[in-house]
Amino acid sequence: MILLPLVLVVGLVLTAQRIPVPEIGRGYVLRVALPEADAPTALPEVAGEEGLPLVVIDAGHGGHDPGASGQGYREKTIVLGLARALRDALEKEGGVRVALTREDDRYLVHAERVEIARRLDADLFLSIHADSAGEAAEVTGASIYTLSNQASSEAAARFAERENATDRLNGVDVGGQSDAVSTILVELSQRRTQEQSDEFARLIRREGEGAIRFHPQPRRSAALKVLRAPDVPSVLFESGFITNEADAQRLASAEGQARFAEVMTRAIRAYFARQQES
Ligand code: ZN
């Protein structure tokens, strides 16, 4: 809907540069300054064969937002390294398509990251982060986050409010329905998405056992903006503590990145295998 006025304006500029204004009785040249800063997010390239399920990998932070820092490392750089390693591993393995929300050191707001996944019609969304424990340098280990139930139903309500005029969720047309019906459809979609997100989180834990050092309570849920797509199963992986020397070195090393990519690749494959069964 945001695009519509822009498209109309561009159409006017392109097709009718001289617009007669009868009151004045002569032609006018219409000049319209198009907004540059608010251009819609460009969609990233998708690698892999058409028809395969799509995984969107999101490296957190970037650009002016470095994220956490510690041990001489910055989160935005570490997580981009992990995202690239996973993308490469998935491309090599085949069986899925893959795209990154950012491939370089740029900043994206949370809504853009979610929007990229939704506009690409992604089947799975993984946001990668690294934690900070401040002065507590001994705290280590990875955690797996999904959206909390409370945040999930709030997001569903907001989404229904905002988008129920013209939208499709999980192949169901929620446009043209009464508000009550479309709210229910959005909630159903969101609930199914939550179950799938939980399933993916469980598989990461299973595949990572013995290969990745986890935090003592690795399964968490929170009101994270980047996990709010009502129709794309989404998990945020806190890969470790950048404030811990061993964690930071592991995450920044080629070997640590490869191990992370291997575990995630197995979890992603197991996830899609299960989706096909059900
Ligand atoms: Zn982060």
Structure write-up:
It is a single chain. By secondary structure, the chain is of the alpha/beta class. The protein has one domain: Zn-dependent exopeptidases (Aminopeptidase). It is built from 7 helices and 12 strands. It has helices at 3-15, 75-93, 110-119, 149-163, 179-208, 245-252, 254-277, and strands at 18-21, 26-29, 54-59, 69-70, 73-74, 97-100, 124-131, 142-147, 168-169, 172-173, 214-222, 234-241. It has a 6-stranded mixed beta sheet with strand order 6-3-7-12-8-11, sandwiched between helices. Helix 2 packs across helix 7. The radius of gyration is 22 Å and the shape is globular. The protein starts with a helix and ends with a helix. It binds zinc ion.
Feature tags:
single chain, 278 residues, alpha/beta, Aminopeptidase, six-stranded mixed sheet, two-stranded antiparallel sheet, globular, binds zinc ion
CATH architecture label: 3-Layer(aba) Sandwich
Order of helices and strands: HEEEEEHEHEEHEEHEEHH
Classify the fold: give the CATH topology. Aminopeptidase
Bound small molecules, by name, code or SMILES, are: zinc ion
Shape: globular
Taking Cα atoms only, what radius of gyration do you get, to the nearest Å? 22 Å
Order the strands across the largest sheet as they lie in space: 6-3-7-12-8-11
Strand fraction equals 15-25%
- Helix % is 40-55%
Low-confidence parts: 9-28, 34-38
Can you tell me the number of structural domains? Answer: 1
> Quick one: biggest sheet?
6 strands, mixed
CATH superfamily: Zn-dependent exopeptidases
Termini, distance in Å?
A: 35 Å
What is the residue-averaged pLDDT? 83
Helical stretch count? 7
Computed structural class: alpha/beta
Oligomer: single chain
